[in-house]
């Protein structure tokens, strides 16, 4: 039945030309009606949405898992192979990956079509502890440019309008006062 739902969603994405599964209400009505026609079961939008969300979590867990280094994949069963200790440690922080200890991702082509590119997997994340954005973007390609050089940026002649949220010289503004002035 999950395959039927995935196929119906793919059909609607192809008809609308919009990626993702955030459908309009009339699109959901079409999916619900066709789902009932194909399965004989009546489900609400919320029920079908919950099934899609669960499949998206599985897909995200699979993508993150497959991105790990030092893991193997069984070509016959299409499952991930890791030492039991590593699985245990991995599952401490990735609970949705547990089914993949013994099973592969169901309907990988359909899930990739629906969820790839709209799912947050952390593959393109950056945090201040990683380094600087400039260093990450430039890498070693601009070795003649020293990122630690102090660069003076000329001040603009554009004046900003003064408002209550701006701090006056020598005066401290706390967070609460700032928030009150914004509201």
UniProtKB/TrEMBL annotation:
Residues 152-168 have a biased composition (Polar residues). Residues 172-183 have a biased composition (Acidic residues). Residues 152-183 are annotated as: Disordered. InterPro entries: Myb/SANT-like_dom. Residues 1-90 form the Myb/SANT-like domain. Signal peptide: none annotated. This is Myb/SANT-like domain-containing protein. It comes from Tetracentron sinense (Spur-leaf).
């Amino acid at each position: 039945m999950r395959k039927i739902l995935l196929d119906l969603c793919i059909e609607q994405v192809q008809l609308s030309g919009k990626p993702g599964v955030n459908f309009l209400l009339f699109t959901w009505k079409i999916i619900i009606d066709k789902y009932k026609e194909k399965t004989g079961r009546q489900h609400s939008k919320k029920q079908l949405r919950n099934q899609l969300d669960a499949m998206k979590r599985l897909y995200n867990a699979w993508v993150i898992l497959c991105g790990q280094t030092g893991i193997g994949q069984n070509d016959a069963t299409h499952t991930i192979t890791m030492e039991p200790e590593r699985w245990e440690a991995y599952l401490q922080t990735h609970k949705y990956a547990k089914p993949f200890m013994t099973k592969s991702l169901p309907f990988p082509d359909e899930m990739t079509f629906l969820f790839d590119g709209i799912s947050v997997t952390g593959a393109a994340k950056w945090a201040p502890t990683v380094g600087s954005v400039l260093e990450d973007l430039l890498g070693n390609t601009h070795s003649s440019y020293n990122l630690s050089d102090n660069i003076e940026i000329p001040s603009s002649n554009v004046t900003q309008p003064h408002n209550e949220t701006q701090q006056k010289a020598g005066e401290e503004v706390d967070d609460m006062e700032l928030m009150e002035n914004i509201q």
